Amino acid sequence: MQAVRTYPKIARPSVNALTSAYNTWDHRRVRREGPTVRSVKDRRDGRDRRGRGELESEVLATLWAAERPLTPADVQEGLGTPIAYNTVQTILIRLLEKGLVSREKAGRAHTYQPTRGQAELAAERMHAVMGRGKDHVAVLQRFVHGLSAADEQALRHLISTDHE
Question: Would you say residue 39 has pLDDT above 90?
């Protein structure tokens, strides 16, 4: 017959004791009330985060300002902010997939140049916004009311010359 092993009894804490310990532990770094939202200054170096699409716009602006096709290293240098080469390359590939830039092989690297001008792209985006709204007249009316006096005058001139 085998001997039955007995182990010393370990005092188990009650559920109330566990709950009390859990509630007194400092959870500020672990648990937050409500959904976690990254703040604008939530970077290690304290710099502001870019808004959605802002880096793509900065890369396009750098390409528009150049008088020649640029390599990712040229774009990285032209941005003027510390940004990784791979990030610039990723943004350029995304712009290529969207049809906003073209790419050509230049030795071991690729060069990129915009396929559309700044004004053309802005007009396309305005048409896309207009296409999303159901009431085009209301959208246009709000747009015109937000224009400066000089822009409104320029728009009136463009409309009158197109109808003549």
Answer: no
DSSP letter (8 states) at residue 52: T
- Cβ-proximal residues to 72 (8 Å cutoff; 6+ apart), any chain: 85, 88, 89, 92, 109, 110, 112
How do residues 101-122 score in pLDDT, each as one tens digit?
A: 999 998 898 999 999 998 898 8
The domain of 158 spans 118-163
Q: Express each pLDDT in 56-95 by its tens digit.
A: 999 999 999 998 999 999 999 999 888 899 999 999 999 9
Whether residues 110 and 124 share a domain: the answer is no
Pick from 60, 116, 120: nearest CA to 91: 60
Residues ≥6 apart with Cβ < 8 Å to 116: 100, 124
Per the structure, the count of domains in the chain is 2
Does 125 lie in the same domain as 76? no
Longest dimension (CA), the chain: 113
Using CA atoms, how far apart are residues 34 and 103, in angstroms rounded to an integer? 45
